[in-house]
Prior knowledge:
Number of helices: 8
Distance between the termini: 54 Å
Oligomer: single chain
CATH topology of the largest domain: Rossmann fold
Number of domains: 2
CATH class of the largest domain: Alpha Beta
Low-confidence stretches: none
Amino acid sequence: xRLAFLGTPEASVVSLRAMVGAGxxxxxxxxxxxxxxxxxxxxxxxxxxxxxxxxxxxxSHDIGDLGGLDIERGVVVAYGSLIRAPVLExxxxxxxxxxxxxxxxxxxxxxxxxxxxxxxxxxxxxxxxVALDTxxxxxxxxxxxxxxxxxxxxxxxxxxxxxxxxxxxxxPDLLAHPRAQxxxxxxxxxxxxxxxxxxxxxxxxxxxxxxxxxxxxxLVNGRxxxxxxxxxxxxxxxxxxxxxxxxxxxxxxxxxxAIALDEVQPEGSTPMSAMAWWAGAxxxxxxxxxx
Length: 291
């Protein structure tokens, strides 16, 4: 099948490679422009652009370049921008969405599934409409969440989504007969920096779920501390807003429970064990508070 592909992050690359590997003719890849990624001021291409160039595919940053192409469909996987009506009127487009629609329409379905404590999530291969994630679904596949963090869950969903996408592209029946979404819709709004801020007013469950998102942080004596891994402690001291070492483990005490820190990353430093950080910060010599 002659296709165009629209995607940007690493999670999109799996579907792109799968399409090429299955023999589809990817005529053009559209991705977000090169930008500063990671530390420093180095301008870097998106993961999709890097993969597309290695595959020998044509790449553009302008969705207008789709105009006049001889393609049968577009495939969209985490492109990063809404596809406007004039484009959708010209080209039918499939979207690989990382949730079981209509649950978690929107920009951050993986993170919201974790924050909500969902037992399962999945992927939906849907036809794009102008409205956000409202299109009919050609195929859905389910996945258990368990205690996976966002990175682990997204990696599994990326593989599941690529497999489901190939199944739809190979099936005239699935392509021709999508089903309308059923059930109550929930929305996964884009997360902000504050969405990852672990604070003492959170209950223990929400603190641990926030850590699983992968960018969690708190402020210790006013300085940012990234929380990379944590668990439920066996013993706590019970004073909200304080840090203590309990049975050789650094514990953040909250008003509605506590969490034990396993791995952290202080400002301007590299990841380390929580106890190594505690020893270096010498917090036992002065009151330590977190907020």
